[in-house]
Amino acid sequence: MKVRDVLVLGAGSAGLMAALTLKRRLPHLSVRVVRSPEIGVIGVGEGTTPSFPQHFFDYLKLKPQSFYELAEPTWKLGIRFLWGPRDQYHYTFSYEYQNRQSDLPRNNGYFYGPDEAWIGPYSALLRHNKAFPRRADGMPHFHNRHAFHIENLKLVRWLETTSRALGVEILDATVTAEAGPEGIAALVTAEGTRLTADLYLDASGFRSELLGKTLGVPFISYADSLFCDRAVIAGWPRTSEPILACTEVETMDAGWCWRIEHEHFINRGYVYSSAFISDEDALAEFLRKNPQVTNTPRVVRYRSGRYERNWKGNVVGIGNAVGFVEPLEATALQVICVECSTLADSLIDSLCDPTPSLIELYNRFNTQAWDDIRDFLSVHYKFNTRLETPFWKACRADTKLHGAEPLVRFYQENGPSIVAGVQLLHSSNSFGMDGYLAMLVGQNVPHDRPYVPTAEEARRWRDHTVKWDAEARRGMTVRECLDALRGRGRPAAWIAPST
Ligand SMILES: Cc1cc2nc3c(=O)[nH]c(=O)nc-3n(C[C@H](O)[C@H](O)[C@H](O)COP(=O)(O)OP(=O)(O)OC[C@H]3O[C@@H](n4cnc5c(N)ncnc54)[C@H](O)[C@@H]3O)c2cc1C
Predict the structure, then answer these.
(1) Top-tier CATH class for 5-73+150-220+305-369
(2) 401 alpha carbon – ligand 1 mean position (Å)
(3) Can you give the pTM of this predicted structure?
(4) Which of 166, 264, 397, 476 has its CA 20 to 30 A from that of 209?
C-alpha cells in the first residue's frame, strides 16, 4: 500500500485533527476531508489534558496565537473531584502526589491527611480559585503543566481554518462506502461521484461508517467497568461566577456531573447509567443541581468501548469511530492526538508504505491505550464512597478493574509508594502513578502500611502547606490572567508551552 493520498471521512475534532496532523508532518500527501452538513458534528468535547497543547505546539510546532484568537480557550490545571469522603480534592497535572519535598523522606502522598485541603502549590491555587502564581511584574507565571477548556464548535473552527491554510481540501457531501479488496474502494456521494484514495481515515464519529459498519470490525464493550451510557448536557452564560482553572466533577445519584469553564459560558453535563435512572429523573436531578441552566438540555447516548483494531486494510479509525469512554478524565481529544501522531510517524518511518508488522504494532499500541484509560476510570468508580444510592453500591461491588488490579493491590498492600509505577503502567499511560495516587489517596482508600510522620516531619509538612497557601492567595485568577495579557496586547505571548 503506497500512500499518496488520504481521504478523511468526517470533520469533527477527530477528522480535522487527523487531516491537520498528516498535512503538517507529511506536506507532500494529498489530504481531503469529506463531511456531511446534514449529520454535522457531535458538538461536545471541551476538556483536554496536557497532551493537547503538546501535540499542537510541540509536536506539530503550530503557533499558539491563532489558537488563542479563534478557539478562545481558558486554562485547565486539573480536576476538582467532589468525590469520595473528602469535601473535595484536586488532581492537578503537576504530579503533586508523587512529588517529594527535599526535607522529607517520602513522597507527598504519605503526608496528605484526610482533612487537608491541598497537597501542593497547584492544588492550593485551585482551592483558592486561582490559576497561576503572580510574578513580581504583575504578570502570571506560566508553566506548561496545563491543558485547556475549549468550546467544541470554536475548536472545530480553528482546526478547519488551520487545516485549509496547510492545504487540506474539505468537501461537503454525505457519502456511502463501497467495499473493495483492500477494504474500501470508494466513498460515493448522493450524486454518484466516487471519491477514492490510497488510505481512508474513518472519523465518522459513533457511526463508524467504515471500520464498524463496512468492514465489520468487532466492538469490545467496556460495560463491565463503566456502567454509564448517557449524558444530559446544558449550561448558562457566565454572570459573576469566577472562572475556575479546573474541571469540576461532582458525584450524582446515578453517575456524575461535569462543570466546564469557558470565558463566557459554563457547561454542565450529567453522565448517568440508564440501568439505574430514567432520562426524566436524570434531567430532574440535573436541573435541581443547576437551576441556572438557560439552554434546552439535550441527551447524548453512547456505548463505552473500542473496536478490536484501529487499522484494517486501507482504513484507519480516529476518534469516536474507533472508541469511546466517558469524559471523566477528558481523554478523548488526548487519544485522538496519540492516534494522529502515531499514524503520521508510522507513515514517515515506512516511507508511506506501511508494513504488516508496523500496522500490527500500531493496533496494539492504540488499543492498549484505550484499555489503559478504561482501567484508570474503573478506579474512580470502584472506590467512591460518597453516596449510598443503588448505582454507587453497584459500582463498588461490581466494577471490574481489569489492568488496574495489580496496581490497586500494590497500593492496598504498600500505601502511596511510587515504586510500582514503572513496572505496572503501560507506556502510553499519560496519568502515571500520580493519577492513580490522586484517586486512591484522594478517596482515602485504606492500605496496610499507614505511615506516621515524626513530629519533626509533621512540622516540616505543615510549613510547606502554609507556604503553598500563602503563595496561592497571592496568585492570579483566570480573569486577572486574561486581562493582564490582553492589557499588554500580546495574546501571542500567552503561552510558550515548552517553557
Ligand atoms: C457527552 C460527551 C462529552 C464529551 N466530553 C469530552 C471532553 O470533555 N473532552 C474530550 O476530550 N472529549 C470529550 N468527548 C468526546 C469528544 O466529543 C469526541 O471524541 C470528539 O469531539 C471527536 O468526535 P469525532 O470527530 O470523532 O465525531 P463527530 O464530532 O461526531 O464527527 C463525525 C463527523 O463525521 C461526519 N460523518 C458521519 N457520517 C458521515 C457520512 N456518511 N458522510 C459524510 N460525513 C459523515 C459528520 O458529519 C462529522 O463531520 C465527549 C463526548 C461525549 C459524548
Answers:
(1) alpha beta
(2) 27
(3) 0.95
(4) 166
